[in-house]
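In keeping with the milestone schedule agreed at the kick-off meeting, the structural modelling team has produced records for the first pair of proteins. Each record is given below as a sequence line and a structure-token line. The laboratory manager (R.T.) confirmed that both were archived under the project's standard naming scheme.
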Amino acid sequence: MKQAVVEVTQRIRERSAATRSRYLARVEAAVNRPRGADRMGCANVAHAFAALPANDKFRIVAERAPNIGVVTAYNDMLSAHQPYEGFPAVIRHEAAKHGATVQVAGGVPAMCDGVTQGLPGMELSLFSRDNIAMGTAIALTHDVFDAALLLGVCDKIVPGLLIGALHFGHLPCVFVPAGPMSTGMSNTAKSRVREQYAQGQVSRDELLKAESAAYHGAGTCTFYGTANSNQMLLEAMGLHVPGAAFVHPHAQLREALTREAVRTVLDIAAGPRLDGRPGGDRFLPIGRLVDERVIVNAMVALLATGGSTNHLIHWVAVARSAGIQIDWTDFSDLSHATPLLARVYPNGVADVNQFQAAGGPGFVIRELIDSGVMHGDVATVAAGGLRAYGAVPEVDGSGSGQAGSMALRWSALPAAPIDDAVVRTAAAPFSEEGGLKLLTGNLGRAVIKVSAVPTDRHIVEAPVILFDTQEQLLAAYKAGELERDFIAVVRFQGPAACGMPELHKLTPPLGVLQGKGFKVALVTDGRMSGASGKVPAAIHVSPEVLHGGPLGKLRHGDVVRLDAVAGTLDALVDADTWARRVCAELPAEQADVNGHGLGRELFAGMRRNVLTAEQGACSWL
């Protein structure tokens, strides 16, 4: 192992000793209880299984067969989640073949950030993660399950499901993805049309045609944003069937992998098996599986692929759910030791289907283990451990041709890259360091996604233009007021102020200005999209302005230096002057807007209680 990875892992282990110990004690206490049907009163049992067929009731109660709880984020608003409509039937069919039973324990909400981007609904997006975690808890709190399958893919949904599942750490759990949509209009071409529209060069009809050609079918969006970063991290944590992340929803292999997820969760669940296979010999609840090394593996996978900046918030919350404490300094130190092994849009031109064809998560994970940057000695839901995730699944062609009866096999990946414009070996990476960087200075702590930013834009020093909303910046752009070097500071965008919306709508106009040769950058206490792109953006600035963060001391015309090389973010203001300044206050009319309309009133308690971005923006601690 690389010494830096060992040191960060040990630091996290020591920092988390007390909280992790208490968490594991709760897990073990829950593991050692009698099964739900044996522990509960007769009325409770009758209610729990009332709608099941009689033979399933007999299996659960008399034969003590495993009962799998399914938590699903199905809806047909999200292209990535629409395929889940048919998954419960497949899962039930496979479970029955092995003498097990299945109940859909509950559904959780799942909103599409692509639909709400730049609109008031986006202010609920970050908080939806904790709502999903609570929904997962409500589903599983019926407490009659021996294992759980978790069906979710997109931005806040996977972190929310994982947070919820870790609060039921006594249950063996497997995540079941649905896969990406097929490739449509390239992400590069789509972005070009967006910039042309921002300049008034194409019509709205032409823009809609381009967007519809890019987002055109079932599956995740094909860029490497938060949704697809989720899948990479779950592979690196060993919570998927190996290689399940990026297989198309309608491929035969997808159904075979879903059926394998059922077999896998039964393999790691306790209790007798009715298919002749031993039960409980690999008993592995998720609370034991997700330890400090697994969290570090997820962090490394994010850095090695230039994944979504959103995960510097989400995985802090995920770790906390397992009693593990991480911070942005841990990410930064790991980034210095982690090679960048993938170029997937917005860090390159390839989409996730091309990434998969070039070797995908398996190639990256194998390289990271072999180069000592990832812990290979961790438990996973797959019997082969993390090395099993360095291979590619395929349907065994010797079967009958039906996914329900065909076997899976895994093939080794070639030693050399299939396409070295998309993936590289650890010996010849795109960069010696990872794709994300911590910035510190008199403006607070922030993060930047450097892997997508041209190297000649890693340092920007320019006067500040202040905005309290993204709408103000867009209006200034349309009025032609931004044709110059500047750093846009969009403040009052933190979780307590307005739910920390993504500001992805700002990318096209800022990209246009950068393309004209102006030095531009964005600094904000809000978020960018998981597809943070070519414009340098210091985001998640903490503490946020509403809580007195130093970003609130800036005045129009102050010069700010964003230096992604040195890792600094500073206002170049005389120290005495800076010390005397008072933080700006959120205008009353803006606070009123932030708190009302489209359900925002219902999230007032979350805005009051939420922790900082670096603390995971948790509303439940």
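The second protein of the pair:
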Amino acid sequence: MSEGNGKPRSSAEAERAFHEESGLGNAYDSRLLARLWPFVRPYRWQLALALALMPVCAELLVAQPRMLQRVIDEGVLGGDLGAINRLSLAILGLIAVEQLGRFVGTYLLQVVGQRSMAALRHHAFAFLERQRMAFFDRQPIGRLVTRVTNDIDALGELFASGAVTAVGDFFTLARIVVAMLAFSPRLSLYTFAAVPPLVLLVDLFRRRAREAFREIRAKTARMNAYLSEQVQGVSVVQAYGQEARCQEEFGAINAAYRDANLISIRYDALLYAVVEAFSSVCVATLLFMGARSLGMSAPAASLGVLVAFVQFIQRFFEPLRDLSSKWTLVQSAMAAAERVFGLLDQPEEDAPGRPQARPPEPDPAAPLVAFEAVGFGYSEARRTLQGVTFAVPRGRTVALVGATGAGKTTVVALLQRLYEVDQGSIRLEGVDLRDLDREALRRRVVVVPQDVVLFPGDVLSNVALGDPAPDSGRVARIARELGLEALLTRRGEGLGTPVTDRGQNFSAGERQLLALARALYRDPEVLVLDEATSSLDSETEATVQAAIARALQGRTAIVIAHRLSTIRQADEILVFHRGSIAERGPHEHLLSVGGIYARLHRLQFEGNA
């Protein structure tokens, strides 16, 4: 592998390039927020009520220093005890109503945020399930998991303590400014003089914080991708004694993640400290100017006004301080939004249908499956199939054999449209697969893969996968035909036998049997066996082969096999060599030709002997 300048790239650099993500460029916050709106729209009335409470709470907050000023000037300095009691109760009432309003508003915002993010998370998951296999070939699984979990959680902070609550801070700030000007324009100007340099500093930190949080999101994705790979491949790591090397690699990834977080923490701390410093300086300036004013024969402000103004200054800088701390959350959320929507903006739809006036009619006289000059490559430099042409008549069995990498499994992937052909076409009853509905195609063509995936649950739900009302009688009959019944009875729970994550409580051969039972349960038109008995011992293989023989009677089947003994009875055997069909015919004919198949047969059986 080489870089753009032609220099070879090391394996470590290639791995880093696969896991790391480049910056997504400058994104406009308003555009990203607008893209969130479809997920928020169903809860717009709760959001509207929460926003409506914000100016109310701001008004209640501003009223409290005014009441305090009257307590001092009318009650304390005026010697009116009744005014002190009456105004103190009024202040308590204002505080209680304000806090109740803030509770209701915060609760509604949290509800809106959680429900909206749940909708976005569901949308992202559905997006991933609609993508073609080539999409996943280029994406580390950990990165995709990060998009659906960590990044959307960071977006939820917009509602929990980020941008939306910042709207309330702006309301509060605007109302405090008006109240301060009404109280004392002169003292207000001393306070407002600190705002321009503060705004410049906040804007500077905001830009730097945005870059820091972009880096955090990228490092998080890389860490999750690496962890996913290591956990899945831990048996290989241990078998080859690579624990120390993997720990060293993870240490470097972890350190990069730590350093990215330290940068964001530094900007967060600087923002908070700067705002606190400006607040303290303003209060000290006010006290100094106020003390000088009170010593004059005609003071510019009374003691009550001065005390109330100190309260106003604290309340003035409190939303500024909150805004500065929330900027970090907003920047984290915007960086996460860039990643999430960057993923959603690169769809590669799985097996999209072609627009047509009406569905094509199948041709009963045509072969059930036909490959016509099919060419395919996983990349431009990696051509896997070239000019592959063959037909599978209804009710016949065709076997595919050949060396590893010859293209056999690729044929199966193309038949299910997990990948799209580059050249030629594949037809089912004379109809191009690209003109068929994706779900209907995969109900008609079912594959028993070499690598079996089972899901947590029980045997019944795994065999009847996708059936909302599983037919236990049918599952029991299939299990009996495959020899599974004795195994399940031995475990004591029959079809209710639990299946753990990925079926790890079953042996490899047992998982293969369950996958075969799952395929037979769907009763497909075309049954594809991709090394379906590769993990079975000889005795179990004989039992399963007998069951397969019964299941294939009258059924159209494509069988991929390395054990040539399992395909002797196939109607036709296709020998693949370097992406093309080199030989074809029944077993005895291919042996008599003395070509590739005969050589494979001789090597295999001489080796067994």
